[in-house]
Amino acid sequence: MTYLDEKQIYRKYMEFFEVAERKRRWSVFDDLPWELAEGLDPDPDAVLCAETFCAVESYMPDYVGEGLNLVRESFGQAWWHVNWGYEEAKHALALREYLVRTGQRTADQMVDFETGLLNRRWTLPFTTVRRMVCYGALQEKTTWMIYRHRLAAARAAGDALLASIYRYISRDEAAHGGFYLDVIGTCLSEDRDGTVADLQHVLTRFTMPAYDLVPDYEERVRVMRAIGITRKIFLREVLLPILGRLGVDRRELARAAAAEAAAAEAAAEAAAGAQGGQATPRTRA
Ligand SMILES: [Fe+2]
Ligand SMILES: [Fe+2]
């Protein structure tokens, strides 16, 4: 079950694709100032961040494979997903080329790194389309926010090449987040309570994709914290703008959280009753 109105999703996909084709396409080969790579001596934390983002983007085969299977019955979503995968692949490629062309990593090191990464497999954090759409909105907006912060840091450090890479990538991430928010808008108009419940469910379990699969995860998280990606910034730059655009307020989310907790409690009581041989079915509002 996809929950979604196929005609609307197709129209949203075509709008997204037209803007992407006409206004947002960029080339790893022609649009980045690679001539600046020679002699560049970037800060080690900036390099570690670029490598971490490259690693997360490198799980593209899993993101595309798993996601496409989930939405394969929806033309608009499946075609969107393929276009999205192409754009994510370019992100990994640009960052990978940056690390190698600036001499921060060798080509052999990158092959070893990627082989190590893909020995582990990313799997879907949620199993329904609507929850994955909610996850996609949060993940893309958070990724956009992180890249915008790194763009500012690269500019401040005088690294015009890395700044250029982050600028193109963050523009793509903003478009990805916008598409998911549009789809959530459609879901809300079809089933507001169910969509808010899914949004709340995903929000309370949200983590960025694949961070825990990347080697030296703890050290990378320490650097991310040190460069200022905090819960407060997440709230201010990701969550509140998302809720504002969707027209969902925090009281609605709190009500959904209370309903989910009550349902879980009732299910646990019913299971305990069944185990003791005295099932006492209960219903809750
Ligand atoms: Fe990306
Ligand atoms: Fe993205």
UniProtKB/TrEMBL annotation:
Any keyword Lipid biosynthesis?
yes
Judging by the UniProt lineage, the source's domain of life is Bacteria
Q: What EC number(s) does its UniProt record assign?
A: 1.14.19.2
User: What SUPFAM superfamilies is this protein classified in?
Assistant: Ferritin-like
**UniProt KW keywords:** Fatty acid biosynthesis, Fatty acid metabolism, Iron, Lipid biosynthesis, Lipid metabolism, Metal-binding, Oxidoreductase
**GO molecular function annotations of the record:** stearoyl-[ACP] desaturase activity
Pfam annotation, one family? FA_desaturase_2
Question: Which InterPro entries does the protein's record reference?
Answer: Fatty_acid_desaturase-2 (IPR005067), Ferritin-like_SF (IPR009078), RNR-like (IPR012348)
- Needs which cofactor? Fe(2+)
Subunit note = Homodimer.
Q: Which family does it belong to?
A: Belongs to the fatty acid desaturase type 2 family.
- The protein's name is Acyl-ACP desaturase
